[in-house]
Amino acid sequence: MIDALQNAAPAPAPADNAAHLLIVDDDRRIRELLRRYLVAGGYRVTTAGNAAEATTAMRNMSFDLIVLDVMMPGEDGFSFASRLRGDTGAGAQIPILMLTAKTEFEERVLGFEIGVDDYLGKPFEPRELSLRIASILRRAKPPEDAGVPAQVHFGPFVFDLERGELRENGELVRITEREREMLRLLAAQTGATVSREALSGTGGAGNERTIDVQVNRLRRKIERDPANPLYLQTARGAGYRLLVDR
């Protein structure tokens, strides 16, 4: 991983409209190598050595994605991600890619329960990091298919596919980027079964059990009784489907 990052070719400054990434890692060397590699890939990059520095950066700048290390002095990555997802500001909506040596299933589930969008275990290949970042950013874009409805209604909820906004009785419901993308996929094919593979995207979060965890987390936001869902239903052995009013 280190050699590949060190060998990244120099690149011109990224475009002003390039995606802006926030790298949060307490290892200065890794932080700088990631910055150089991702700038060479065309991204704008800001770095922070800990959660406090990241919080300050987010007050002054907007970001399209956070690359977040788990093990940091002071507030760790899990706590920082949880704080962001519990916020009422723009930070609650920023996708998070977590870098971690903790690859056990329970650790991944914890992250997905908090609202992390994807995981990448250390050590990793820089090319895989680039692909996962591109995948998350691609999933965050609204669908371009003209046949997709602008909005879907189910019970007290309205989901706007273009804006990616979910509202309950007119009030905005906070959802993560992964939940937003799953809703877009389900709403674009209302009533039809969407496979777990499709719902996982191409970002590597495709383990069936982790998809189930993410669906269950979304159900807690849109179902009166998540154990007996009315809207987001399971197609046993196949995937999930969203039942809407119109």
Tell me the overall shape. Answer: globular
> Would you count the extended β strands for me?
12
Radius of gyration: 18 Å
Structural class: alpha/beta
At the fourth level of CATH, the homologous superfamily of the largest domain is: Response regulator
* Distance linking N and C termini: 49 Å
CATH topology of the largest domain: Rossmann fold
CATH architecture of the largest domain: 3-Layer(aba) Sandwich
Largest sheet: 5 strands, parallel
Summarize model confidence as the mean pLDDT.
84
Sketch the topology as an H/E string, one letter per element.
Answer: HEHEHEHEHEHEEEEHEHHEE
Class of the largest domain in CATH?
Answer: Alpha Beta
Write up this protein.
- By secondary structure, the chain is α/β, with parallel strands linked by helices.
- The chain has 2 domains: 2-139, 3-Layer(aba) Sandwich (Rossmann fold); 151-242, Orthogonal Bundle (Arc Repressor Mutant, subunit A).
- It has 9 helices and 12 strands.
- The longest helix has 15 residues, at 208-222.
- The chain is globular, with a radius of gyration of 18 Å.
- The protein starts with a helix and ends with a strand.
- The model is unreliable at 202-206 (pLDDT under 50).
Question: What is the structure about, briefly put?
Answer:
With 246 residues, the chain is of the alpha/beta class. It contains 9 helices and 12 strands.
What's the helix and strand layout?
Elements: H1 2-6, E1 20-24, H2 28-40, E2 44-48, H3 51-60, E3 65-69, H4 77-85, E4 96-100, H5 105-114, E5 118-121, H6 126-139, E6 151-154, E7 157-160, E8 165-168, E9 171-173, H7 177-188, E10 194-195, H8 196-200, H9 208-222, E11 232-235, E12 239-242
Parallel strand pairs: 1-2, 1-3, 3-4, 4-5
Antiparallel strand pairs: 6-7, 7-8, 8-9, 10-12, 11-12
Helix pairs in contact: 5-9
